[in-house]
User: Fold this.
Amino acid sequence: MTEIETEPSLATSEVFNDPPLDVTPADAAPRVWKFWGTALWGILLFVAMFVGQIGAIVLFVVYRGLPLSLASMQLVGGEPQALALSVIMGLPATLAVAWLAIRIKKASFVDYLALHWPSWKQILFGAVGLIVIVLVWETMSRSLGREATPGFMTDLLKSGRDKGAVLLLLFAFSVAAPMSEEVLARGFLFRGWSASFLRVPGAIILSSLVWTAVHLQYDMYFLAEVFSIGVWFGYMRHRANSLWLTIVLHALNNMTAVVLTMWLGS
Assistant:
């Protein structure tokens, strides 16, 4: 009796030989750092920003032939030129660590940080909301008899004007600082934490708290104002999916504060 050989059907061959196209390999690494990974890398970003800023002060101390001590660093760090360069030097250090963390995940630096340019409507909407928040805090400050600007910032900007460092301070506070802080808070931290169990609301709150902690040189009243602005920035980052939007809003806020402080001080 002759055996009849049969070939496997096309369907059977596809099922057993060709894996489905939508199956992701089990060992594929996720493209986003989740809660703890984001938190640990966020600490490294903050440390890098701090080291970059301190490094600029150390260079000033060495250049002037002063002893490398805490007293010398405090003395030099209080000068407007040195402080401005310190803020500026924090930016490349922050960007370098952010790039490394994102590179490890083999993700796009632009997409990970949402470096997409917003529409003019989004910029206008974000600016109007920021103006409302600032005006509310300004009104509260006047009603409580408080300064609208911290006293040490007023003194620093006056000193910068007298020593010809206005443009350097303006660049530091209106360009370098917004970019460094936004890459840390609304860029890296928000991206990872919003993909974790915190989701978007938790990521907005926690990243705003971290951003507020960066400004511990202020008192509790100004810290509350910083936090409220941070929440608005976080919302706009999520709404527009654009870090450039929050960088622009942050820059506008700082530039307005610097210009008004120097104008009123004069």
Summary: Residues 204 and 234 are 5 Å apart (CA to CA). Residues 35-63 form the longest helix (29 residues).
